[in-house]
Amino acid sequence: CIFPVFLFSFYRKSLSRSSVRSRMSLKPPKAYNSLQKGALIWDPKPLQVKKIFEALKKGLNEYLEAHQAELDYLSGRHKDTKRNSRLPPSLSLSPLQKQIRSVERYIRKLEFHISKVEELYEAYCIQCRLRDGATNMKHAFSLSPSTKASRESLVELYKNFQECTEDMCFIEGALEVHLGEFHVKMKGLVGFARLCPGDQYEVFVRLGRQKWRLKGKIETDDSQTWDEEEKIFIPNLHEKFEIKVTELRGLATILVGVVTCDTINFFTTKPQAIIVDITELGTIKLQLEVLW
């Protein structure tokens, strides 16, 4: 049992050096107080976090490239203006220079945002590998003859596994702070012959604990009126959009359909259209627009 104990000792030192709280000054905001040490822990989802991280980083880089292109264009205009101007340089900034400064500040913020996201995900991967190592070592110890040393090692490994799990959940909460906002716009129902003047519908959109309930009516000219047109949702790592449509007939309600929609494709600079089949045959579709 000497060799496994040596591995365990090495693992403990690695864990101590790589502890997320010793390496990073992460302070969860009020919205994530439940993620503090000693709080209730759920099961982290490394594969889902990886998908969101890759989509988030791609979207942030798209914004960075777009603003860098804008900066290059403004800088070129400024050079042309200076070259063609016969007036002495002014001590005050011109509107074009102020615009350039504003874009430069925004680019620096984006670069910091990207570096922070990468730092969080790197720490998350470290804790994930340590957690997997603890799991493998627990399995190896459980196959060896039971001794006092092996039982003590199993207890310590369980504690380390719990610490890594807690740190991963903590980082997930910190990463969610950097996901931005989804601005969801109601574009209407599409139903061809299924939608008739006078019909009333209720659309219920949920993302985790966030809810949006709106009612609409089909007018005589086939246009639609809705009591709300836009809602802001805060994305998270594990929840999908849940959409339910019901038809209102007097005091009765008839369920038209329920669908779910993943959020991964919405981390991009361009507005994304959501067109989902509410009924199984696709006779009624719901159209939304999501801007990140």
Question: Could you explain the architecture of this structure?
Answer:
By secondary structure, the chain is of the alpha+beta class. It folds into 2 domains: 46-82 and 92-178, no CATH class; 182-291, Immunoglobulin-like, CATH 2.60.40. It is built from 5 helices and 9 strands; from the N terminus they run H-H-H-H-H-E-E-E-E-E-E-E-E-E. A 5-stranded antiparallel sheet has the order 4-3-2-6-7, with no helix packed on it. A 4-stranded antiparallel sheet has the order 5-1-9-8, with no helix packed on it. Strand 8 (272-277) and strand 9 form a beta hairpin. Helix 4 packs antiparallel against helix 5. It is flat. The termini are far apart. 21% of the residues are buried. The model is unreliable at 1-19 and 25-41 (pLDDT under 50). It holds the Pfam family PL48. InterPro entries: FAM65_N (IPR031780), RIPOR3 (IPR026136). Belongs to the RIPOR family.
Number of strands: 9
Low-confidence stretches: 1-19, 25-41
How much helix is in the residues?
40-55%
Number of helices: 5
Task: Give the domain tally.
Answer: 2
Distance between the termini: 55 Å
The share of residues in extended strands comes to: 15-25%
What is the spatial order of strands in the main beta sheet?
4-3-2-6-7
User: In one word, what is the shape?
Assistant: flat
